[in-house]
Amino acid sequence: MPDRRGSVRRRHAALLGGTVSYLEVGQSAPDQPSFVLLHGIPASAELWRGVLEVLGEAGRHAVAPDLPGYGGTRLPAGVDHGLVGMADVAEALVDHLELEQVELVGHDLGGGAAQIAAVRNPRRWATLTLSHAVSARLWPPPPMRLVFAAGARSAPLGGRVVRCTLLASRRALRASFGDGSVLTRAAWHRVFADGKVTDVGPSGEPGGRAAFDAHVQAVGRAGTSDVTADVTPRLADLDLPARLVWGTTDPAQPWKKVGRHLEGLLHGPAVTLLEGASHFAPLEQPDGFAAGLLAPAGSGSGA
After folding, report:
1. 99: closest CA among 10, 14, 6, 27?
2. Beta strands in 132-277 (DSSP E)
3. Which residues are 19's β-sheet partners?
4. Which CATH number fits the domain 9-138+223-294, given the four candidates 3.40.50.1820, 3.30.310.50, 3.40.50.300, 3.90.400.10?
5. What is the pTM for the complete model shown?
6. Is the pLDDT of residue 68 over 90?
């Protein structure tokens, strides 16, 4: 029979008073950590599908949740849909799956959520990997400041701005890819449009636009970078093996500015630079990205 370890499955879990939809590959094992991968805006767990396939082929267990406002996850209005809520979903899923060792990975806004989860409960995680992560006050880039400001005033307005400027056409998103040909129409729908431009999630869940609007508003109302301005400096006190996996051509979260800043805070992180990849490196170069995750993390030894 063919080896199906790389087969990615979509699952659903009743968590936080609602439903969290997630992708999973492989099976957890007592002798090695599982990976938990957190996406950012305006993607979904589908950003990680190619990376998950490679991890599964390597015999590793990994899960990637649709975070609040994305994909098939639907949570009550009273649940935080911002960065803190994203961290809450990651921890709730880890508890639900009874994972004892976890390598935490965060991209973009998911990188901000990963920082929150890591500093508030460092013993929960085996390693921390950040990729194109929002950091301190080094985000958002000017166009996104307007998006979150609009979202803070009106949830539908903020979501509408994202749909019109970033999601309504592939052309706008191609600027965030080193190789624009990767963003096929199928990939655009699967990773970015479904559940945000369209109202229906990957398993037919209605209400995607309203959930995404709530997410944009929650991030805006939290003062966008105010949250990471508090959390990111605390990485310097984090004694946790770490990695940085980064595309070299990202204009939004450039390596020389944001990546280097994080490298200086973390203690000896292992660094993987993906030449030619831009902001959505997990989608552009899934093999290289997964190789970075499978490489040993930095020592994590404090000064």
Report:
1. 27
2. 242-247, 270-274
3. 14, 74
4. 3.40.50.1820
5. 0.96
6. yes
